[in-house]
Amino acid sequence: MEFPSWISYAVAWLTTLALILLSRHLRGRKLHLPPGPKPWPIIGNLNLMGRLPHRSIHELSQKYGPLMQLQFGSFPVVVGSSVEMAKFFLKTHDVIFAGRPKTAAGKHTTYNYSDITWSPYGPYWRQARKMCIMELFSAKRLESYEYIRVEELNSILKTLFSISTSGKNAITLKDHLSTLSLNVISRMVLGKRYLEENSGEVVTPKEFKEMLDELFLLNGVMNIGDSIPWIDFLDLQGYVKRMKVLSKKFDRFLEHVLDEHNERRRKGGDKFVTKDMVDVLLQLADDPNLEVKLERHGVKGFTQDLIAGGTESSAVTVEWAISELLRKPEVLRKATEELDRVIGRDRWVLEKDIPHLPYIEAIVKETMRLHPVAPMLVPRMSRWGEDR
């Protein structure tokens, strides 16, 4: 049966009219977006980011409020900058905002998002979190490493005392605190110090520190290519090139670490006992019951996170705490009085004493509030609609 030509035309016109009305309706729907500055074409609000982006964002939040929307190139970015907003994103709706954006740092410095920090939400991420809670950072595991922390702390205190009595006028405390945290972490994670001169190692102590400093820096930079993907290949700031160079250095070091540990496991045979966190990771990688197999590159990514996560952060926090105490003699006096009253002067402070030192604990918390190690958290990405 053939329809008259005018019916075909009418259907075509009605369909076109319906599409036009639908598109206008959709465009007319007003989304209740957070306030924020008007973005420019292509670059969005990147022009408002200064040399220290966290300060630029703070200044904008003073104008637009604790919840605001920015546009970084092609991507909308919602910024929460208050206690209430932190609870909203990180606690109340933690699972919804558990995703991670794809960035150059995650791709090039963490084995293509195979570590704990940058891995996307999913079975691998859930397994990684479970490993951290149940195995790597369990109370029993951390308690078993207490002797390492005590030995390294006593060693650094003896060094500082020796320098102070040698007649030198000044001590660069930061260097000693960095050495302390690196020695503690490397012994807990890798099983030995990596800041001692040893001709058998693949990196020198200086190179080891420089690698960690570079890793910390490159994972916190604002890479323009992440915001405007179609110019990413240009690497305008040179960050991607530096990430690739760093990745090769770290991979060479971590391959050496894993080879050493596997050799020790082979020699130990059935009597082998885990000594450090790399041993634990390699043991988990052999577990056939894992939901997602932990590959060798995953073990290296986890190990890199463990080394980097606890070194600079600890040293910087202690340095700021001492700096603030020296500027506030009254606070220092009260802290000293608490130590004298609870601990006395006949023994060192032990980790089990910390719950009985509320004033010292308050100083630590206030230090972290005033001087956060990382002014901005690793960015999260909304998973809204993924499971719908």
H-E order: HHEEHHHHHHHHHHHHHH
Mean pLDDT: 87
**Biggest β-sheet: strands ordered side by side in the sheet:** 1-2
Q: What oligomeric state best describes the polypeptide chains here?
A: single chain
Helical residue percent? Answer: 55-70%
Pairing-aware structural class of the strands and helices? mainly alpha
In percent terms, what proportion of residues is strand?
under 5%
Radius of gyration, whole Å: 27 Å
Tally the helices. 16
End-to-end Cα distance: 43 Å
Count the strands? Answer: 2
Largest sheet: 2 strands, antiparallel
Give the overall shape, derived from the CA principal axes: globular
- Unreliable spans: none
Fold blueprint:
Blueprint (H helix, E strand, L loop, with lengths): L4 H24 L24 H12 L2 E6 L2 E6 L2 H10 L11 H6 L13 H14 L2 H6 L1 H19 L8 H17 L15 H14 L5 H4 L11 H30 L8 H9 L10 H14 L2 H16 L1 H14 L15 H13 L18
Antiparallel strand pairs: 1-2
